[in-house]
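Researcher: Structure for this, please.
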Amino acid sequence: MKEKNYDRLRWALDQLPEYRPGDECWDAIHDGLDRSAGASERPLADRLPTYAPPAQVWNALSRDLERPPRLPHAVIRTTGLRLAALAAAVVVVLLAVVGLYLGNQGPEVSYAYHQEAAPVPVVADWDDDESSFNRAREVVRARNEPHLNNLGQELDELTSAREEVKAMLVAYGEDATIVRQLAEIERERDDVYRRIIVEL
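Model: Predicted structure, token format:
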């Protein structure tokens, strides 16, 4: 990393005057360090002040030391109480577990559900090919052949039936049975149309 204005800073530092301490300063520092080292050679206990405790303190200590220890009796009593409390807690936990295990949990409930798919909307595309049917009818009339005339008459009947079913759709709404009838009529019309095309 390059410092900004490094050259100027270096030049300014070089312009500062140099001062050297005299040898007597270093000697004074050295003597001071030697004196403190000599003082620390003495043990700390010798340097601390001593105080004699009052007689009451010694009397209280001696009385406490003469008493018989009561610790084992207290430990036995405390241990007995702890064991009794622990045994009671274990009994309570066991009773709770047995009660939960044997308790009547009631009937098992299960839920069943069914998700129905939404019906696919019907796209009314049965009028898209009507121009092809009209051209086929015109060709049949123009040729005027008996077999083609029969197919043309069948196509006309299916077309009129189709118009009736479409009127029923408008009157009763998009009922599934009516839509199926219309689809069946359209399939029959397609079949007749194919036979006309084959004959032509």
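Researcher: Any notable elements?
Model: The CA atoms of residues 180 and 186 lie 10 Å apart. The mean pLDDT is 79.
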